[in-house]
Please model this.
Amino acid sequence: MSNKADKITAIKGMNDLLPADAHLWEIFENTAQSVVQSYGFQQIRTPIVEETRLFSRAIGAVTDIVEKEMYSFEDSMNGDKLTLRPEGTAGVVRAVLEHNLVYEGPKRLWYKGPMFRHERPQRGRYRQFHQFGAEAVGFTGPDVDAEMIAMCRRLWDDLGLENIRLEINSIGDAEERARHRVDLIAYLEQHQEHLDADAKRRLHTNPLRILDTKNPDLQAIVNSAPKLLDYLGAESLAHFEGVKKILDANAIQYTVNTRLVRGIDYYNRTVFEWVTDELGAQGTVCAGGRYDPLIEMFGGKPTPAVGFAMGIERLIELMKGAGDTAAPRQCDVYLVHQGEAAQMQAFILGERLRDAGLDVILHCAALTGAGSFKSQMKKADGSGATFAVIIGEDEVANNTAVVKAMRAAEGEGQQQTVAFEGVVDYVVDQITCGDDCDHDHDHHHHH
Model:
C-alpha cells in the first residue's frame, strides 16, 4: 500500500483541464479556428521542444524570457541543449524556413497549443499556458496588419466578449529605434536618481521596456520621455498611416499608445495589443505585430511577416464573466437496460444509433452493480439526454424498446413502444422533426 505522503500532485503552475470547463475551451478553439479559416489561414503544428539556440537567437539572449523563464535542459541521451517553447512564433518561422513554405508564395498560418515559462505562479499566470496565434509570412503591406486586427475583432464578437479595446503603435525600423534609443538613454540618465531597480537594470540593455513600467512613481518621467513615433522616417510613417486608414474605413476603434513597445528585438513597425480591465492589472489578452527582420536573423532571405498570439486561459476567464457558459447537452440518447439479454440488445442498439450520427450513452455497470431501473432513469435524466431508450425483459421478449422523451415540453415524459428494428428511424425522426419541435439540434453533426 502506498502511504498518504506519496500522493503525487500536479506541478505548480501546470493545471488540469477538467471536463466541467472543457466545453468552454472547445467553444473558444472551434470559434477561433473558424474565424481564421474565414480569412484563408491554415493550421501548422510544430514540436513543443526545440533547440535552445532557436529561442536565444530569436528572442535575444539578454531578455528575461531567455535568462529566467525558459525551461531548458540537456538531453541526457546525446547532450543536445533543448527548451520547452516559451512562445509560438520562433518555431513556426523555423518550420517555414526548414520546409521552404514561402517558396510558392506568402503563407497565412495559425497554431494553438501549450507554451512554457518558469514564472512565479499568480492569478492568470501559468507555467504551462496555452496560446492561439496566427502568422502571415511574405506579405509586406499595411493591409495584412489590418487584417490581423480585424480577425481579432471578429473573434471577440463571435465569442460575445465586449470590453476589449485595441491599442496600436509603430516602433519603426532598427535605425529609427537606434536613434531614439540614444536620446532615450540620455534622457533617462538625467533622471537616474528617480529610477527604480528594474529600470536601472534595463537602462543600458533594454531601455524601451522602461516605458512600459507599471510603477506609478515613474509615470511622470516616462510620459515626458522622447517618443519613438517622432523618430520614424517617411516609409515607416506611411505604413502606419496605411494601417490606420484601413481600420478607420472598417470602423475598428483604436487608441494610438505611443508607449506600446516590445521587449523582443525582432519586432518592427506595427505593434498592437488588445487590452481589458476585467482581469485586474494584467490586462493584455492578445498581442501582435510585425517582425520583418526575424526570418533573415534565422538565415533566410529577407521576408516580411506579421502575427499575433492570445492567451487562451485569460480569454476563458473573460468568457466565464460574459455569462452563458452552461455546458451543452451531453447526448441524444441514454440507454437503460435490465438483465443480460437486454444489455446485449442495448449495446447493439447503441452502435446503430451512433451509426446514424447520434451521441449515445450506454448505462454501464459500476462498483454498486448494474443499477435498478429507477437509478438508471435518474442517470438518464442527469445526462441531459433528449431520449431514454429502455430495454427490459418484456422488451427483449417482444423485440421492442420503450422510447421516452426526457425533455418533452407538454405532456411531460411521453413514451412510445417501438419495434426494435424501428428504434433508430423513430429517434432520428423525433430529433430532426419539423417546426412543431423545439429541440436545438444544430449539432447534427459537425464531425
Observations:
- The mean pLDDT is 86.
- The chain has 16 helices and 17 strands.
- Residues 19-37 form the longest helix (19 residues).
